[in-house]
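(Structure overview)
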Amino acid sequence: MLGFLKNPVVVTAEINMNLLALTVLGLISRLRGLSYPRAVVFDEVYYGQFVSLYMKRIFFVDDSGPPFGHMLLALGGYLGGFDGNFLWNRIGAEYSLNVPVWSLRLLPALAGALCVPLAYQILVEMHFSHCAALGAALLILLENSLITQSRFMLLESILIFFILLAVLCFLKFHNSQSYSAFSGSWWFWLLLTGVACSCAVGVKYMGLFTYMLLLVIAGLHFWHMIGDQNLSNVSLMCHFLARGLALIIIPVTMYLSFFYVHLALLYRSGPHDQIMTSAFQASLEGGLARITQGQPLEVAYGSQITLRNVLGKPMQCWLHSHKNTYPIRYDNGRGSSHQQQVTCYPFKDVNNWWIVKDPGMQQLVVSNPPRPVRHGHIVQLVHGITTRYLNTHDVAAPLSPHAQEVSCYIDYNISMPAQNLWRVEIVNRESDTDVWKTILSEVRFVHVNTSAVLKVSMSGASLPEWGYRQLEVVGEKLSKGFHQSIVWNVEEHRYGKSQEQKEREVELHSPTQMDISKNLSFMAKFAELQWKILTLKNEDTEHKYSSSAVDWITMDTNIAYWLHPTSGAQIHLIGNVLTWASANVAALIYMCLSLWYLVRRRRRIYDIPEDAWQLWVSAGRICVGGWAVNYLPFFLMEKTLFLYHYLPALTFQILLIPVVLQHLSDHLCRSLLSKSMFSAFLVAWFSSVYLVYCTFSPVTYGAPSLSVAELKDLRWKDSWNILIRKQ
């Protein structure tokens, strides 16, 4: 029974020494001296702020992209025990002892290191020789710009890692299609493709370009499968559903999960939540939640409310009035109604309170039971402190003469009667009988007499000194168009109990009492946050190191990342010049040869075997396609661009170099002499690549410090900005 113990248990394993050696070299090149410099390097000043906010669980919005990449950087800080206490205000600032620099930079460095063996594997899976695959990996290993970008707390190396992982998994899935469809490995690589794509998009929206490329290639492959008569309809449907699950449903689900974790971690109020709606702010701990907790949910006749404009631009503000009146005449000579001013005020103030009144009754308190206000009801809005009614009439607004002036009505006993009836329209209602709800309902107020809608002036201009520089509120004729400037929501709310004005003023200053919870669902919070990320635009300012997409191909620009405060040591984003030039030449050769082959094949002339042609085309889909989709969209973008935006496209272009070299060697160098000369050329060329890498290593790693003469020698192009201290 125990006879199997007579023989030893033997486990055998195949180890690809090329892959192992490349992984070790990648780790050495990216992890060596990772804590140096112990100072803020370029965009670490930007991403570090978000890491600190994660550590403190404070909500933020970053318009540069989804949160997954930020969470990975924060994970490094968490593993290193970072408490978030560091002021990220200046590039070059020395890190304090509580900042785990090595840990914060670890994940980008690991991602950059693993790109080296991934490049090797991709070329192997595209059915190129191990020699070509080794060349691709070494070119990635010796690319100075990729090394620099991966050694700091930045996102590009993580993005490139997930992009290459997605490509590799897709190739492995596609290669297993012919002999093991629906096997365990087939499912593994297909599902991992979807996971890697979602991670790439979750790091930066640039990952969407490669994701779309793989979807197109997968669609083409499936289109060819439809023509395969050996596959039944059931089998085709199973293939379609499997691809839909792995390449669409799983990435979408994972993308949502990134935001779920992001929102679960950042539950505290902070400076960024002011751009969110009142409902979103109220869901965060602290801030608005402390004010709104316990408010009545349903707005009723007699409710005391503050109204926040949903637009939030140029700043968040609340409907406001004060005792001052519009001047009889403006500076341009136009006359006004001389009524009480109504503005939008960007601060909490007792003059932001209004009372919802039933036009048919005189009382300003909530009845028992309360009578809720519904969509379509007519109301009057009474200013809480001055008790004057919100009004508009056919008088031009002070800064927007095409719109009507909005005021609080003062009876001057002249022929201008009050027009103070407003119809409540709930924009986000589910039915026409919806009740007006605190925070949750987005409403617009339509003037009954003139059909003008209450809104913040689109110009965002502030009133002159007589209006205390507050934002203009106008009445604009209702049109089919929709804009958030016409939408308001109740932020603070209480049920009024005091009929007497003095008692009511005391009430307006007191906190609310009732306890009704108003939590947003995850999908509502996700939809709002996603919309803010896509639409929130910081003012683009010209940066010293910004560049255009045209400059990237020939690397006519560089970026100074860090400069030692006393010596000449510095770090620059500069690529391996020879590699960049070779990548451009390889792309040009590929396109010219492809055009030549296509024309010749049209004439029934086949210069290369069919399998070589298919290999050539499939490699172009990945390498040239990857370069194109990650580069060309930048010509359509209206944003500040930097050289590092080109690195994903460059990575695909570098993979094309050994593809072209092997093709030239196999199909154009046919004599023994030409093959020998080509091999000698490759040795000389690759030695030159290594020499260029070594030449620029001091500004890649920031050490050793170079003299003024040595720095000047590194300025190979006049457009490069190498920092040289004045003697």
